[in-house]
Specification:
Blueprint: E1 4-8, H1 19-31, E2 34-37, E3 42-45, H2 52-67, E4 73-77, H3 78-87, E5 99-104, E6 122-126, E7 129-133, H4 145-152, E8 156-160, H5 161-171
Antiparallel strand pairs: 1-3, 1-4, 2-3, 5-7, 5-8, 6-7
Helix pairs in contact: 1-2, 3-5
Length: 172
């Protein structure tokens, strides 16, 4: 049975959590067996009969209660994640770590993302995802998830194409 993927926004630095502790907290909250990918808030779990919104709410509450961090959580089913990856016009770029999908909590009200003047990045807004290609790398770019959130007025969290592909395989 396909599983769902929960993406916790803002994990790291002052909000770092060990993945074994996170899995334990989520299991204690009734979310069953949870797999993690990297130490960046990538979770694969069985949603049971819960909606994606209910899973996001349960994960957020468990993280708040278990660690004291109130971090947004965005959930996609396996099918939604695979569909997003298939719609990513940059997914076949040679350097997958320089292609990101920003998963939005809700659909953007626009399909236009204003990029800073002279920015080399390319971006496509498509419903609940924004696909971004960083030809010069991500580190020095002004077009990070926070920038995109401000431009669109929607909470989001970014994952690179390599991570998205791994999460699709894990959730199948």
């Amino acid at each position: 049975m396909p599983r769902s993927v929960a993406l916790i926004r803002g994990v790291g630095g002052p909000t770092a959590m060990t993945m074994p502790a996170l899995r334990e907290v989520l299991a204690s909250a009734g979310l069953g067996e949870v797999e993690t990918l990297q130490a960046a808030g990538n979770l694969v779990l069985d949603p049971g009969r819960r909606s994606s919104a209910a899973v996001a709410k349960a994960v957020r509450a468990a993280v708040r209660e278990g660690f004291g961090f109130d971090l947004p959580v965005i959930v996609r089913t396996h099918a939604e994640l695979a569909d997003a990856h298939a719609r990513n016009p940059f997914a076949d770029a040679a350097e997958g770590r320089w292609v990101q999908t920003v998963f939005l909590a809700e659909p953007a009200e626009t399909t236009v993302l204003e990029l800073p003047t002279g920015a080399p990045e390319e971006a496509v807004v498509d419903g609940r995802e924004v696909f971004v290609r960083y030809p010069d790398g991500i580190g020095g770019s002004k077009v990070q998830a926070g920038y995109i959130e401000k431009q669109l007025g929607v909470v989001g969290t970014a994952r690179n194409a390599n991570t998205v592909a791994k999460l699709i395989a894990m959730s199948a």
